[in-house]
Amino acid sequence: MSKARFKSLLLFGPPGVGKGTQGKILSTVPGLFHLSTGDVFRSLDVGSVDGQEVSKTISRGELVPDDLTIRIWRKGLDGLIAMSRYKPHEDILVLDGIPRSVPQAELLKEHIDVLGIVYLECSAENAMITRIKRRAIKENRADDANEEVIRRRYEIYHNESAPVLDCYSKDLISRVDAMGSPAEVLQQILAYVIPIQNAHFHGEDG
Q1: Residue 2 reports pLDDT greater than 50
Q2: Selection from 112, 84, 80, 86 nearest residue 7 by Cα
Q3: Assigned domain for 29 exists
């Protein structure tokens, strides 16, 4: 298999800021392919060894071990390529939910070429927690319904995920206020993503 790295955009930010929502919208744009690591995890067979470990870890609000995360993510990505749903030579990969730790960012270096990072910021943590609980009811996501688990996920985000940004050049990072309406947030994201996509299509990224 080719060791060529996949051209990628990262959607980054704490739980509940709308990474998945914005990723789904971006996936409707030709030339952008959204891959949610959470969706990859939720699609695992819960009877499998990997599925059981992922389910137990997520239910505690903790991070899935780095090596396992990268292995499951890459397997899911290869499956999408095999089905021609994701076409690496045509699409920029929009990643949501990975990397979530500094070791994951290091492991991903051999797989992806990061063209830009959309950092969805939120200063109102309690508002985000309320949003996550509402989403849990709407989408029947049991891992998001328990406030104690949600707060544990925030604690882990601050301790393990937030330092990921230091792994990348500040020039790659665009800060977006996640508390605006979905349309406002999308507008800010597109203002950043359009030039990157244009450069990609015109070969200016090398």
Answers
A1: no
A2: 112
A3: yes
CA distances to 24, 111, 124 from 129, in Å: 21, 32, 9
What is the domain-level CATH number for residue 108?
3.40.50.300
Domain encompassing residue 44: 6-195
Place of tokens 């609000």: 61
Tens of pLDDT, residues 61-96: 888 999 999 999 999 999 999 999 999 999 999 999
- Report whether pLDDT(131) > 90: no
Sign of CA dihedral 148, 54, 122, 99: positive
Inter-residue contact 187 to 177 (CB < 8 Å):
no
| pLDDT tens track for 103-120 | 999 999 999 999 999 999
Integer Cα distance of 66 and 74 in angstroms? 12
